[in-house]
Amino acid sequence: MASVVRLIPGRTVFFVCDIQTRFRPLIYGFDHVVATSRKMLKLAKDTSGADYASVLRATALGGTAPELDPAPLGKLFLGNYTKSAFSMAIPPVISVLRQHDFKSIVLFGIEVSGYDLFINKAQSLTA
């Protein structure tokens, strides 16, 4: 069942997941995914939410779509991390989560439905 959750300004982290240039011709509606992701990054900035991006095997699949330039986020951008599996629970990300008092995570991008394991692991960090 869906529920509405209030984002806590400054205590929410936004994860941009695998929105990479190589996927553009392969994924139907990719431009809509990018457009929605741009709105999410604007929300991150407007709520002082931190942001970080992950890319899957960047050497083969390219970097994050250039329309999602993190520069406007300034110090809210926590980094861009390359990973080798469909998991965001990689050591540098876990380290960043432990350094901040985040209360919620907004996860968006490609293959987001496969990140239940990460969400469970992130919840265990705050328990």
Automatic annotation (TrEMBL):
| Name recorded for this polypeptide | Isochorismatase-like domain-containing protein
Q: What is the lineage of its organism?
A: Eukaryota, Fungi, Dikarya, Basidiomycota, Agaricomycotina
